[in-house]
Design brief:
This protein is of the alpha/beta class and 334 residues long. It is built from 10 helices and 15 strands. The longest helix has 23 residues.
Length: 334
């Protein structure tokens, strides 16, 4: 199957000036020929807004590796052209990670041309909007849940804490863990989110300071497990308060990329720190995670805190997500 070459493309394009200033321009004068190389051409039906997207759109360093760039680290849509026999016309697909939106044009466009190895077939019954209501954040949250399970942790062992609970990864993690039977403690830096988090299944809501203010190498044991999307002093405090043989899945740095802690939780309590790499995750584990999301994600996730916006609103939304003003998940319709 060949790829059509005359299709018009609308995209949010980032460019960088000689003095390193980044400008985002919504363009409708592109064609498929302007897209980077790839075996599969996808008609994009939805993308989403993630913290990393906010950094990219606003020109913060450390995300975009070359310009011009179309941001958007995930996408869902349908195949309209492929030179790879694994994909045919009309296949429902999704993509998260693999450097898309950073080093290869991403999902903030009506069309994307990508490598076949990067694509995942969408589970039966999951439309593009549902896929992106979960998106990179939901995929990362499920990867973290699976890591805790693979470590042997179960709900009968005690409480699990989710940091950054009001954000994308955190909100999905709260709902998934509650659905699985865990007693979920939601840690958040935002006041006024108690009703939202309890609707997702949180048993208790605590301020971020409960963890970030913990300074001793070992604190009183409380949590059997944790999912952390914050990093910094919050993660350090969480490790110090994790029970013997517990584990924390680390998947974000909304507070800080630095971690100042000691080896005490690891060598005296056997606490495990599980790193979650949702960018270069192998295809087999991706398929397992998306199958689990399709079967296990509770309906409340799609009733609470999912909002849709057009591509034209992305720049405003980028400012809001970096300011900590975006709750839950934001779906972008190109």
């Amino acid at each position: 199957m060949t790829q059509p070459s005359d299709v018009q493309v609308r995209a949010l394009v980032l460019t960088q000036s000689e003095d390193k200033q980044v400008t985002a321009t919504l363009r409708d004068d592109l064609t498929v020929n302007d897209l980077p190389e790839g075996e599969v051409l996808v008609s994009v039906e939805a993308s989403s807004l993630n913290y990393k997207d906010g950094l990219a759109v606003l020109g913060r360093p450390g995300v975009v590796r070359k310009y011009p760039m179309v941001p958007g680290i995930d996408l869902a849509g349908s195949v309209i052209g492929s030179s790879d026999t694994r994909f045919k016309m009309g296949d429902a697909v999704l993509l998260t990670g693999w450097g898309v939106g950073e080093g290869h044009w991403g999902g903030y466009a009506t069309h994307a041309r990508v490598k076949a190895d990067w694509l995942t077939q969408r589970p039966a019954g999951m439309d593009a909007r549902k896929a992106m209501a979960l998106g990179t954040a939901g995929f990362t949250a499920m990867m973290a849940v699976m890591a805790l399970e693979d470590h042997g942790l179960t709900p009968d062992m005690g409480e699990v804490v989710v940091t950054g609970a009001s954000g994308g990864v955190g909100s999905v993690a709260v709902a998934l863990l509650a659905q699985a039977g865990w007693t979920v403690v939601a840690s958040t830096g935002r006041t006024g989110e108690e009703d939202y988090l309890k609707a997702l299944g949180a048993h208790e809501i605590v301020p971020r300071s409960l963890l970030s203010d913990l300074k001793r190498p070992l604190e009183k044991e409380r949590f059997a497990a944790g999912i952390d999307s914050v990093g910094g002093t919050t993660l350090a405090g969480l490790l110090a308060a994790t029970k013997r043989a517990g584990a924390v899945a680390a998947c974000g740095l909304a507070q800080s990329a630095e971690l100042h802690t000691s080896v005490m939780p690891f060598i005296l309590r056997g606490v495990a720190l599980l790193g979650i790499d949702s960018v270069m995750c192998p295809p087999e584990r991706r398929e397992r995670a998306w199958a689990r999301l399709n079967s296990d994600a509770p309906q409340v996730l799609f009733q609470e805190g999912v909002h849709e916006y057009p591509l034209s609103e992305v720049q405003t939304l980028a400012e809001q997500i970096l300011a900590g003003q975006v709750r839950g998940r934001t779906v972008i319709i190109p």
